[in-house]
Structure formats: C-alpha cells, structure tokens
Design a protein that fits this description.
By secondary structure, the protein is α/β, with parallel strands linked by helices. The protein is 47% helix and 12% strand. The chain has one domain: Rossmann fold (3-Layer(aba) Sandwich), CATH 3.40.50. The longest helix is centred in the first third of the chain and has 29 residues. The radius of gyration is 21 Å and the shape is globular.
Length: 242
C-alpha cells in the first residue's frame, strides 16, 4: 500500500505580502537617501584619514593620548579626520582633529550599548545602516589609522584589507598603532593565513605598524608623493561598486 503524505496548505495572504514588499521598498529608499546625504556632506572634505579604535578606552589611557595626538597632527597637516563619532578612541580622534586646522568628522550609529556621540564633531552624520557607514569610512579615506580595539575595529581593518586585496578599492596606507597590541596579530596573519595559503605573502605588506605620530603623517605623504590625494576617474568608478 502506497503511503500518502499530507501537505500543509500554503497560506497566502495578499495583504501581508503587500505590506512586506512595501516595507522593503521604503527601506531601499532609506538606504539611497542615507548614501546621498553622507556623500554630499563628505565630498568636499578630502583628503581625509579614517581612524579606528576601541570605544572602551577612556581619557587618560596612553592609547587615548596617542590617538588624540595623531589626529591633531593629521588635522594640522590638512587632513580631515573621520571617526565613528562615539566614545573612547573615536572621541580621542575627533578631539584631536577638532583642536586642529581641519574638520573632525563623526559617522555616528545607534547601538544597544557603548555608542554615544562625542562633542568634538565639526561634521556629524547619523547612520541607520551599518554597511552604509562602513562604506563611507573606506570611500572617502586617503589612509586608515587603526588603534587597538575589539571586534568592530577588526571588522573595519579586515574590510579595508579585503577591498584593497581584491581590487575593489584603491590601495591606501593602512597603519596600525600600538606595536605590543598588533605584533601578535601580524604574526598570526603571517603564520596562519600565509602559512595555510589563504592569502599571498605580499598581502601582509598592505598594513604596517607605526607608533610615532610624526612618522605616521610622513608615511601618508610619502605614499602620495608621486600622485595626488584625489582618486583617479578609474578609482572613483571602482569605489562606486564597493
């Protein structure tokens, strides 16, 4: 005797489907509006350097002091400084830039904890969508300066490394600050990733550790010595497809 399998009838509520599709359409429009607003705010603030680091490191910590010093020197050298707009080392970056010649920019996002806007922002942009905020960090940066941090900092670092490695964006200086913090990470990348063949040996050279603030500024200028800070037409087109 052939066994029969009873199927649960599909529930098709046209009104529910319409409501879901409507919400998705509005979400797409919201993403487009966020992209346009952020681009208009940032387009004239180049050259810029994106700085990253932990939200949990407070004023008085050596990492806070060096982040503030680096940002001040970058600002006085003519770079707008972009941070995540929150507390900790994000605030240190904005504070240093705010005291200098060039704008301090905060790309703010609402998180369940840790994220609150710092008061040292000359240009403040609020984001609802994490991926759109991350895109702006890369799209408008002439360099990355990455201080010690947690998962969010590692996410931003590896995002930029991936985009440069795959040619989805132009190559820029990626500078790690805090040799004791990053030495183990670089060693792991070299031993595990290169060792297992998951990246090429030359990919490790996409980033370098520099702790001296003056040397960081000098390294960025040296990188662009034979070309301008503005992206070429080809690079702009590439970055539109991040």
């Amino acid at each position: 005797m052939q066994r029969q399998t009873r199927k649960i009838p599909e529930l098709n509520d046209p009104q529910s489907q319409y409501t879901i599709n409507g919400r998705e359409a509005w979400r797409v429009l919201g993403i487009m509006a966020e992209f346009q607003h952020a681009t208009e705010q940032l387009i004239d603030l180049r050259p810029a350097v994106s700085m990253f680091g932990s939200a949990r490191i407070r004023a008085g910590h050596p990492y806070y002091d060096i982040a503030r010093t680096i940002a001040r020197k970058l600002s006085d050298a003519g770079f707008s400084v972009i941070s995540g707009g929150g507390p900790g080392l994000m605030q240190a970056a904005n504070e240093g830039a705010h005291a200098g010649r060039s704008p301090a920019i905060g790309l703010n996002i609402l998180l369940p904890h840790e994220q609150r806007q710092n008061r040292y922002q000359d240009v403040s942009i609020d984001f609802r969508y994490f991926f759109m905020r991350k895109m702006m960090f890369v799209r408008f940066a002439s360099a990355y300066v990455v201080l010690p941090g947690g998962f969010g900092t590692l996410d931003e670092l590896t995002e930029c490394l991936t985009l440069v490695q795959t040619g989805k964006t132009r190559r820029i200086p990626i500078i790690l600050v805090g040799q004791p913090f990053w030495t183990g990470f670089i060693a792991w990348v070299r031993d595990a990733l290169v060792g297992e063949g998951t990246i090429a040996a030359e990919d490790v050279d996409l980033m370098r550790i520099i702790d001296d603030p003056d040397q960081i500024v000098e390294a960025i200028f040296e990188f662009y010595e034979n070309r301008g800070f503005q992206p070429t037409r080809e690079e702009r087109e590439r970055m539109l497809n991040l």
